[in-house]
Amino acid sequence: PLTWTAYHSADDHHQYMDFIEQNYKGLCETFSIGTSTEGRDLRGVKCGLGKREVWIDGGIHAREWVSPAVVSCLIREYSQRSVNHQDLLRKHTIYMLPILNPDGYEYTRSGGSAYRRRRFWRKTRSRNPGSSCIGADPNRNFDAHWGETGSSMDPCSDIYAGSRPFSEPETRALRDFLLGRVHAMKMYISFHSYSQMLFVPYAFSKERPADYKELLRVAKAGEKAIRRTSGKAYRVGQASQLLYEAAGGSDDWAKSKAGIKYSFTFELRDKGRQGFLLSASQIEDTCTEIVAAVDTMITTSAEQD
Ligand code: 0X9
Ligand code: ZN
């Protein structure tokens, strides 16, 4: 059903996940955390039998197409792998949700005469009372220094934080799911694009968590695995240092509010040549380097807790 030489619809992703569940009974199953504003299922696949849990999401921002592609590729990887080398999946359970913002994603795919305007959509597709502008930036909508740095209170802005923390059903669904599993959840990874970076908290300011060095150690091990695998360079550090300060993000919330020790955000390929329009021919190689990074980050963090 899915291939990794093209970008696919949210429906295709759902069908692929159903297919995985039917074919890999016992080791992987689908799960749902809720529904989007337009009623789309927020569906993912969990693989593994372990007590130590890892969360992976993609598609928070609509136009960052390589992100859902890589997360569905991770589903392929971990579902196939569980047959042979089961070690990682005996100790861990990995939750993978490819498209957290399916309404936005489908909007960017809806093309037509408004192609350019739609293809570069970033936000959700919720209505804003009193404004004709649509949507909020899901990665400014989490309750972690909400509305402070790097976000806007203007519903027409691309970085609109929303009318209140968790105003969006998509971010609420993620919040409720993760809060229900905090006892076991050890790692949070979110995939964005582009610029080839790997962030450790915090992003809202240059403040660092007490265990910053440990998180940096794990991130650097991930970065090294990428370099070994594809030769690609990813910069490692705080988003507030490497990119800009921005509050209300999922990574900061996972770390500071949900108490998930290891929290990371990836910016996938490339460094700007194609940007959001990354050629689908790069999905497979991006996936390969990210599998190496995720494997390494999971195993190298497990030594610590
Ligand atoms: O601004 C963002 O949300 C991310 N960059 S993107 O170009 N994909 O929009 C960076 C996220 C870093 N983490 C936080 N800002 N919390
Ligand atoms: Zn993004």
Automatic annotation (TrEMBL):
The positions flagged as active site in the entry are: E267
Question: Carries keyword Signal?
Answer: yes
What range does the record give for the signal peptide?
none
Please provide one cellular component term from the Gene Ontology annotations of this protein: extracellular space
Q: Which GO terms describe its molecular function?
A: metallocarboxypeptidase activity; zinc ion binding
- Name the GO terms of the biological process aspect: proteolysis
Query: What are the names of the required cofactors?
Result: Zn(2+)
Q: Where is the Peptidase M14 domain?
A: 6-301
- Which keywords accompany this UniProt record? Carboxypeptidase, Disulfide bond, Hydrolase, Metal-binding, Metalloprotease, Protease, Signal, Zinc
Name the family: Belongs to the peptidase M14 family.
This protein's name: Carboxypeptidase B
Q: Which organism is it from?
A: Amphibalanus amphitrite (Striped barnacle)
